[in-house]
What we know:
With 293 residues, the protein is α/β, with parallel strands linked by helices. It has helices at 3-9, 39-42, 63-66, 78-89, 121-128, 143-147, 152-170, 196-212, 220-224, 240-255, 263-269, 273-284; strands at 56-61, 95-100, 136-140, 173-177, 216-218. It has twelve helices and five strands.
Amino acid sequence: MKRRDFLKNASVGVAAASAPRGAFALPQGGRDTNSQPSCSEFHEQPKDYKKTPFRRLVILGESTVEGGPWLHRQEDRYADVLVGLINACQKKPIEYYNKGIGNNAISPRSPGYGQSAKPSALERYHKDVIDLHPDLFILAYGLNDMRAGMPLTDFREDMATIISNVQKACSPVTVLTTVYYMTGYGSWPPLDRGSIELTRRYNDCIRGLAAEFDCILADVWASEGQSDWLIHYDGVHANQVGELLIGNRIFEALAQHASGLTNWTFDQQLNTQWTQRVKKGRAEARDPFKKTW
Length: 293
């Protein structure tokens, strides 16, 4: 499929990704809560983490990353959806390494580790991530550990270890995903200790990690909107439509913080008749095009 057709058919225009940190901060001294801030008070230029195209993506995660029999095709996985969107924007395709393992835990400290697929994320991230030297790293954990009732302090420490060591080793743009929505909280023991409330606490933890380690946050929980019809019969995994939403949410967050994804687009459009005409018109209106990134 041509890049143009892919972008046309993909559902890129889902709900807005997580707002840049500080974008909705009120001015010093506060203001009357009954009055509405102006648009200029809401605006903050997002941080640009990557001014050149991405070269290599590694995504480390659980079953929703790896994919499985709940999907008709492997390319329905949200990671593949994301890769398709990235490749539609870049002149050269990104190298893609899917390091998802179904029924995986963040570390041996997770209560579900004993019956999980081995090795855990903490036991394999050197080989599966650092040794591949990605410039884009997505860490998608928390679902199974939440379902197993892992203490948040332990989960946070293990996530922080992985993020910190990967960043020190190869300095990739790092994306953290919030925990996915699900419906079968009482199914599949011993992974039956989770809840919506615990998921929210895990997601607050992940947001805090993103802020601490300067990561991009992709709020996939918000993209699903607690819509039960986006979840497979198994109560755990997103169905095909849910996978599309998750992939698009990560792409949306990434595109808002990586101008390099638009380089090829600007190169292609520069010398078209339309671009030359509108650039001239803007210059004559004393509102010339200006690259701000």
